[in-house]
Amino acid sequence: MFATLGLFSSLPCPERPSCSRPNCLFSHSADIPPQRQLVLPKPTPAKPTPAEPKPTLVPAKRPTAPSTPPEPPRKLQKVAPPQRPLPVQSSSRSETGVPILKVNAAQSLVAIPVRQTMLKTLYDHFVVLYRAILPSNPSLASDHALKQEEEVYKKSTKLTYRNAVIQCVAALKRRETPTSINHPSVGTEDEIAARLEAQKSIEALRLSRELLEPFVHSLEELERYGYFTKIPDGPGGDQPTQEGKIAKCERCGQYFLVKHEQEEEKCIYHWGKAFTSRVNGEKVRNYTCCSRPADGEGCSHGPHVFYDSKAEELHSRHPFSFLKESDGNGKLDVVALDCEMIYTTGGMRVARVSVVDGSGKQILDELIRMDEGVHVIDYNTRFSGINKENHATAVLTLAAVRDTLDSLIDTNTILIGHALDNDLKTLRIIHHKCVDTALLFPHRAGPPYRRSLKDLVREKLGKMIQMGDATQGHSSLEDAISTLDLVRWYILNKQKSAIHADVKR
């Protein structure tokens, strides 16, 4: 046992003299002086403070009540539901800054600082390349730099990684500066290579009658989408113009007197289409041209115009007819065509027609002069691309253009187009062998709704068309080629789907 320190031996036992503990820690000696008592100072009473006078029940002077009316009850605001936490990304970036890699260093063959340095180099060069389109796409350089670095890393080893990035940077410097998000120069090296390969496959496919026969629409399907399949009664062409008569304006809905010298600022209208969207949970309708409410005043000014839609009305302006019967003289088996129309005293009339064969080669691209007695009201340049100056060079009338078409195609020719019924109506052609991309790629709402050619080409082909402004408009030749490429794309992807289905079996 350890020896005691005897720290309590100088203190008297509290139970002395009756303590019975053996070896008591305290002292039992009578010589120990008694402990000094701890004296606490008594608190001195505080001087009484004079009591404050109690307030009276009624104030000496009542406050004057404000004269403003009470505040109306506030409206309750909708509280958005709590947002779910976002998943952690493999990399982070600011909207316009250098992206930062977030990868496991133990799983990376190349040191993370080296990869981050190379990523910044790629980002800097993408910023220079995309300088014209970054204001409207601020995260594009960051996104593509991340994708490009990942592509290079997956194809490289630890020794070849740095040189592979340098080669990629050199390729970026050789690219043409893009002017739109869908320019061929936009994308990573792999994305551009994939687009080029797909375009080569599309261009290499020559469409033939045998290849397209399974995709020709039935008469019932054509009629459901508004095609005319029969020639109206009567000789036609007996009322080529509506001048001097009352018609309903297609743009603003007002009735007006048709004359070839209309007042340019008389009609107030929207040139875009009304669309429905949700704002704060409520449906609102606005126009695509100006984003104004559908019930508001128009954003554009122009002359009153009218549009004939019934077969009998169109037949009276210029007669319908079938294409010539096949005579075995080697007419084209497949063509794609597109037309541009303008407003006249005879309604909407064709002013340009473009035709390409099954390989995309231009066969015909002609401006069309109006019939005798028919005058132009509005060239509809925003959409047609035609103005007074270039239309003045037109030589052939519609009848002459129909004779030219009869020398190229016949009743066995398969015609390709987008919303082809409109082109056939303005050309006054009745034809039953048609492939319409508006039907191959139907609108989710079904007929009569149709997807636009511009949207389909952007989605399927990755290209932008119809990018002209109000002074340039569209190009019927560009639209005809794009429609042909859409059909090629459709057939190629159908074949791929069939191959995959056979493999699964």
From TrEMBL:
Compositional bias of kind Pro residues: 42-53
Coiled coil feature spans: none
InterPro entries in alphabetical order: REX1-like_exo (IPR034922), REXO1/3/4-like (IPR047021), Ribonucl_H (IPR013520), RNaseH-like_sf (IPR012337), RNaseH_sf (IPR036397)
Region (Disordered): 35-96
Protein name: Exonuclease domain-containing protein
Gene Ontology CC, one term: nucleus
Keyword annotations from UniProtKB, A to Z: Exonuclease, Hydrolase, Nuclease, Nucleus
Compartments it resides in: Nucleus
BP GO annotations: negative regulation of gene expression
Family under the similarity heading: Belongs to the REXO1/REXO3 family.
UniProt keyword Nucleus present: yes
Domain of life: Eukaryota
CDD domains: REX1_like
Domain spans labelled Exonuclease: 333-496
GO molecular function, one term: exonuclease activity
Organism: Gymnopilus dilepis
